[in-house]
Amino acid sequence: MPSSLLWAVDVYGRVYSLSTAGQQWEHCRDAHLEFKRVTAVQQCCWSIACDHNIYLNVHASDVPIRYQEETYENQRWNPVDGFSDRLLPSDRWQWSDVTGLKHQPLGDFQLPSDNWEWEADWYVDENFGGETTEKGGWTYAIDFPATYTKDKKWNSCVRRRRWIRYRRYKAQETWVKIPSEQTESLPDPFNDITCGGWEITEEPRGCLALWAVSLQGKVWFRCGINHHNPEGSYWEEVSVPGEVVQISSGPGDLVWAVLWEGHLLVREGISRDCLRGSSWVTVESPSPGAGAVHVAVGVNVVWAVTKDHKVWFRRGVNSHNPCGSGWIGMVGEMVMINVGLNDQVWGIGFEDRAVYFRQGVTVSELSGKAWKVVSVPRDSDRSHSSASASSLQSAGCFFGGEVRLESQASVLSDVDPDTERAVGGLVPTPEMGDSPKPRIPKVTSDSFISELVSDREGQISRRDVPSAGPSIPEEDHAEKEVEDRASPAQVLSPSQSGGLNPQWSNVDLEEAQTHLTSGPGVDAAETCSLSSVATYNLALEEPYGPDEHPKWAWVSGGGCFVDCHLQLNWFNSSTSTALNSSMQAMSLSITPAQTAAWRKQIFEQLSERSKREMENFMHYEQAIEQSVWVKKGNMQWWRDWKPHKWVDVQFALEQFSGAEGNKDGILFIYYTFNDEKKYLHVFINEVTILVPVLNDSKHTFAIYTAERTKQRWPIRLAAATELEMHDWLALLSVSCCDSRGIQGPPSKQAIWSVTCKGDIFVSEPTKELEASPYPTPCDQMFWRQVGGHMRMIESNSLGVVWGIGYDHTAWVHTGGYGGGFFQGLASSTDNIYTQTDVKSVYIYENQRWNPVTGYTNRGLPTDRYMWSDASGLKECTKNNTKPPSPNWTWVSDWTIDYAVSGGTDREGWQYAADFPASYHGYKTMKDFVRRRRWARKCKLTTTGPWQEVPPIALSDITILPCGPKSTVEQVPLWAISNKGDVLCRLGVTSLTPGGSSWLHVGTDQPFKSISIGGVHQVWAIAKDGSAFYRGSVSAQNPAGDCWYHIPSPTGQKLKQVSVGRTSVYTVDENGNLWYRHGVTPSYPQGSSWEHISNNVRKVSVGPLDQVWIIADKVQGSHSLSCGTVCRRLGVLPMEPKGHSWDYGIGGGWDHITVRGNSMEAPRILMPSLTDNGSNQTATRSPLRTSNQPEMNGNPVGC
């Protein structure tokens, strides 16, 4: 799980961040001003400074923020000048947007603010619909507007070309002021801010809803915030039925606000088309006697704080009922509450001003169980721990009897001139402790800061403040206050000062006024500042002593992801925290490569010692020469013959071990047929794979053998419970591995594959697998399962293995094995980590048009189900659709999916003439049916030998396929983000397969597939189906220089590419497999495409140019099977295309990679009538082989 940040502001206006993987608050030293508020999301943090302006801090990323500016140059043909810029008066502008309605000359494009910079100058886009245009990038048409083509025709009277220029956002990891000149009417100074709405829509990418409250109680909405415009465009005022003091926005469509009189407002009408909503609904305060002063919302929760500091939870809140149903009083007293990701809750305690975390918040118990203080030090506290006692005592010299008041910010005050008092010197005396303390009224949403001066004891100067316990259980809470007033002498005690020059901003006005007023007649209520930005300089460097807890004013967890099932490091004691920090400091010089080398050295030493000590006992006779054990159980078997049905059977596994330690076994299935007892048996060493099968009603798995693979008819068994099924699968997997002598983690040469439901399988290749002309049939390969859940996996022969989940999270293999339901001997004890994956389940709502009622859910008798799957053959409603398996749980409600191929209208509908047909996102006169897709997310939590590689979500990866006996220092690894950005991973080695950082490679359009060959040739496929080749990629220049556009096969759009040593294969969107001719070292782009096969889903080309595919519609003994593992036969250096296919295990496979199998086949001499023929056969292939090839080899260069 990648680390995320919790943001907070202390009472002095300093901003801190706390990582979920850290144990101390990190001071944001880039913030030069004091801050009042922060509101954070995962990609950025917004804030209000003491000057009431909005500031933005965009977190740094390996993928830069780039925006493509475009404009079109239009020309018309005339018989005198040919094509020129002399257009007709009715034509579009010479320089315009794509519609031609907006005038866009090149010189009119300006940077939005100083935080942007141009990457390069304008240039012409020569790519048109995945194909290259003629030089100049012109496309032709009969007239404006019309359908454009890249070829000039006799009737082409107009033409246009697109100009492109990129600008890059450069202000990352720094606080920048939001430009105010972007709005015509400047809003008045802001007092509160909240950011949310990132789950409302996925288009545009990174869309956010930023709400702000001004000092006059007005509400403002920042329009146009998205990934390509992080600063937004302009402010828009939102009318409210009163004066608002505070507002909160959740990740979805929940927005609540607090009115001045204590009531609450709920925003309604928020949708993807209207992020600012349409109307307000009033909700009464939780407490009749005390109005609300603060509110915080999440996805399905609303928390509130009233004027008496009581905490309240709103029940019944969801997207359909944003107002909820009622309030529940919670234990604890807070000054503010904040809700973060996963509806986790943080708060600022009223008594101690500490940050509290709400424990026990889960989907089933949103209110949580208890408050627990976040007890971690600040980074500035490190210097205090080494300070001597003498230095602390010497701090008393700074309190000579004069305290100066120093204004360091613009003050918006409601103090009348005639009520102001002169501030003079004052020597604190013990007698002043008896004077009553004035009470400062709560006049703004900053009132809780003012409470620092009225209800706290001792405050900053007290070193004996009682520390908060680890938790506040609700049943032990006592509702009473204990006031222990501190005298001014105690407040300014030299022994309790922590350093030099503290700055008191927005806080502690009570003590300050106690020492700064010239007489007891001063009315504190009249001298209170509305914004409370007066700064008091006490000539101290640090406001806190080494043993004092920091006092917090605001906390924001909108970008902090906390897994409710994992323990955070925040709740350790300060002693252990300091110890851990010192240990971390000591281990900073130890690199992962050194750690891996030490582990390898220790393992070798232990192996040598074990071998040396066991030699003395080799002559002893074994105590047990042979053993047999049997495990039995009751299961159900899917009968092989018709009528097919589930039959109750007895299942038995008999395993025996020989004198030499070899193990084998037999499976028995005892059943009854026609009152006669019969049995079916399978030898364990004949089993090729054990596959869990998805079934709504039964826990089933399939057992394949080589013969049953050819028949496409496995043995299907069903267990009574899921636990029993997993026990049998683990036991059978161990038995199969023992019978074949396979132990430990997968080898570096292993072949990895993924099923259509995300299960991971691995097979150990043999030298005869690619032998020619008699290779081992791939239906005899043994596949074993590895824990985890992936959408795709890529590997190479150096042991670098990466995977991508369905939620686009990147994972790297740790070198372990097992995980998931594998326990004990079937799994390694280390290198196993928790893995989560999220995927969407889709159903379709179908409607037909009739002239009376329009589109309704009443279809024709021959129509598909009105709620169905994509094919329309299976009925799928919202109620009867379940997650893929019992291991998955729903994590969202059903929502309309707008990201559908072909586009949708504003309500998500797609239209067509009939079912099924080609759908489009707009209605025409001939459209009589329509459909829209609904999506619901589900989550899986499992374990496996995988570690997450944060923070960029990926859609494709490729690793350099190294040949036999080769190694490289830095393994080239390329990837494509889920948004289409091309990335190059740096620091990837066999010892550190996760690498260190990403290097962004610029492109003119988003990509979807990428592959690197054995000699650093990089090919990629863009989202429009066009192919590209990256030039000048080498070990010294890992990112290359530029992209070369490669024409696609005629009339086809490519979707996937795989590059081997010299071969380049691609798959188009229609399932055709293509081979690239003419690829040579001098001309790596090749010359032409040749069609090889159809019905291909994925292709993988190995380091020896082996070709493996996932094929659909493969003929079996019973029916056509989809997702079959197939291998190309006859692939030789002189015949890289091969000649036929060998079919492996069929049904349910989605991905395969052979890019780690660099094991060369042994040379086989063909029988011949003459010796000359045999010699010619032996010398025909230029590929060098060895009778005993090494799996990992020696370093000779890749």
TrEMBL record:
Ranges for region Disordered: 411-501, 1165-1198
One Pfam assignment: Pex24p
Compositionally biased region (Basic and acidic residues): 453-465, 474-486
Residue ranges occupied by any PH domain in the UniProt entry: 629-739
Principal place of residence: membrane
GO molecular function, one term: lipid binding
Domain of life: Eukaryota
Any one GO cellular component localisation term in the record: lysosomal membrane
Single GO BP term: autophagy
Compositionally biased tracts (Polar residues): 490-501, 1169-1191
InterPro entries: Beta-propeller_rpt_TECPR (IPR006624), Peroxin/Ferlin (IPR006614), PH_domain (IPR001849), TECPR1-like_DysF (IPR010482), Tectonin_beta-prop (IPR051513)
SUPFAM superfamilies: PH domain-like
Compartments in which it is found: Cytoplasmic vesicle, Autophagosome membrane; Lysosome membrane
Protein name stated in the entry: Tectonin beta-propeller repeat-containing protein 1
